[in-house]
Request: fold
Amino acid sequence: MREIVLDTETTGLSPAGGDRLVEIGCVELINHVPTGRHHHIYINPERDMPEEAFRVHGLSDEFLRDKPKFAEVAQGFVDFIGNDTLVIHNAPFDMGFLNAELEWCGRQRLTNEVIDTVMLARSIHPGARVSLDALCKHYGIDNSRRTLHGALLDSEILAEVYLELIGGRQVALALSAETEIAIRGSGTRAPARQRPTPLPSRLTLEERTAHAAFIAEMGDSALWLKYQAVEIEIRQMESA
Reply:
């Protein structure tokens, strides 16, 4: 299951009032686990930056002047998110801007399923403050880097908050620990029975090489690296 945690920065509060997007940040999750893949773009809003908005995100007219216009980056953004679920804090705000920008450049509105973490947090913590900073404090998530709003940084932080809201981090850790116990045959579980002759791999050398290259692109934090290490350990046990 693929999900995209998303955040935007804008020139103001309403596309109907002439405000525009200036930054989009996206973080990819696979089965609730960050893969290390992300999509991040700054956008020339084709208008001036109000002082109030500048104080929020620090993106000036001068900085954005040579950045691409939304129409020039729309395809890359749409390709990255695909048809997968979007995870957004206060989703109506970001979706309103994204759909307005898409319509202005002659594209279709987004039809992705959307999880609004504001609504999710309110259902889990009724009556509590559910701003991103408040949720970071509640779950003990370090947001000290967040001196200004930034779409990519906020997406990374929101991914951590989202996993806490759905219990994903604990579930991932439990599954990881359970996998190690099953493989090593430690704890209360009996060792897994081994075949006398390992089954031959159905993957070609070309497929294994392509898969290794794909994992390498995810970065050092990719969960695949853990399973890759486990696979090597299994092969060593089978050949011993």
The longest strand covers residues 21-30.
